[in-house]
Amino acid sequence: MIDLYPLVWPLLRRLDPEDAHRLVLKALGSGLGPKSPAEARSALGIRVFGRDFPNPIGLAAGFDKNAEVFDRTLAMGFGFVEVGGVTPKPQEGNPRPRVFRLEEDLAIVNRLGFNNDGMEVVAGRLAHRAGPGIVGVNLGKNKETADAARDYAALVERFAPLADFLTVNVSSPNTPGLRALQGRAALDDILSAALEARARATPAGRPPTPLLLKIAPDLAPADRSDIVEVVLERGIDGIVVSNTTIERPSTLESEHRRETGGLSGAPLFRLSTQLLGKIYKMTEGKVPLIGVGGVSTGAGAYAKIKAGASLVQLYTALVYKGPAVVPTIEDDLAELLARDGFGTLAAAVGADHR
């Protein structure tokens, strides 16, 4: 891949972050993006959720909220992509400005608030999928909805036939009251309704679409225990660890460090990786995990995998390093696996706990 991003980044950083992002989506939609198709390298391939991933590096939800360029991002070399978050009804989100670059910290703060085109528009785009690749959908409730379980059930029923996996997102800090849905009773209601909706949407004789849960990095120990118990009791297929954080490490240097919203990027790496390891041990490795938060290097992806992640996602690194970060991470990860004598990626998952 020829890396032109160092030439493009100085221009993008002059724009409002949200305007720059919109410009990137338009460029990708016009076919201007780089192409580095995911290679089926034996060392990086892994089977998770009944799906064969060519490599474990995925694009996190939030980049392609409306499923406009998922084919183009897959062409960058990602092993999978997750579109969304999507809500049943279209939603404008919170007032602008609502995205802030913390360049000194290689981080971003966002308080977007699930802005998206709505379930029907996004489903229409996914219905026209033509090429190969694994595409998941991140699901969220509308801000005004009182019955959260109803929203998630509607989303699951609509997207189950169209996606390779679904992620119930109850951990964004930018929708009032959403994180409270991680409590045991509320979460059990939501996941129960989601599973029933999935059953309705699954044709006889077909395997159900994998259902995942995305959790916050700031959970108290009791909340972690409740979540794990519900996940195990309900038979949820996987956990995404983690969403953005509302914490602000004292090491942040940017003038935007006090902006309200979720913090992503490098400062989230340690917190999210520690939580990943705890969830892996609590589930005894029985539930596949996707590690998210601060991944920007092969070493970072490897740390997540050894902590318990079968798959890894990134987003903020793409902003600061550009598309070339994807094949670079994959190359470095393959070297690290070989260095430590792991013949397969699966053999390295959870290695820190053995």
CATH structural architecture: Alpha-Beta Barrel
Strand content: 15-25%
Question: How many extended strands?
Answer: 13
Largest sheet: 8 strands, parallel, barrel
Radius of gyration using CA atoms only: 19 Å
Q: What is the CATH top level name? A: Alpha Beta
Query: What is the terminal separation in angstroms?
Result: 37 Å
Outline type: globular
Number of helices: 12
Order of helices and strands: HHEEEHEEEHEHEHEHEEHEHEHHH
What count of domains describes the coordinates? 1
Question: What is this structure, in a nutshell?
Answer:
The chain is 36% helix and 16% strand. The chain has helices spanning 5-12, 17-29, 70-74, 119-126, 148-159, 184-201, 221-234, 269-282, 298-307, 316-321, 325-339, 345-348, and strands at 46-48, 51-53, 57-59, 80-86, 99-102, 107-110, 135-139, 165-169, 211-215, 238-241, 262-265, 289-292, 311-314. It has an eight-stranded parallel barrel with strand order 3-4-7-8-9-10-12-13, surrounded by five helices. A three-stranded antiparallel beta sheet has the order 5-6-11, with no helix packed on it.
Describe this structure in words.
The chain has 354 residues and is of the alpha/beta class. The protein has a single domain (5-353), classed as Alpha-Beta Barrel (TIM Barrel), CATH 3.20.20. The chain has twelve helices and 13 strands. Strands 3-4-7-8-9-10-12-13 form an eight-stranded parallel β-barrel, surrounded by five helices. It has a three-stranded antiparallel beta sheet with strand order 5-6-11, with no helix packed on it. β12 (289-292), α9 (298-307) and β13 (311-314) form a beta-alpha-beta unit. α5 packs parallel to α6. The chain is globular, with a radius of gyration of 19 Å. The two termini are 37 Å apart.
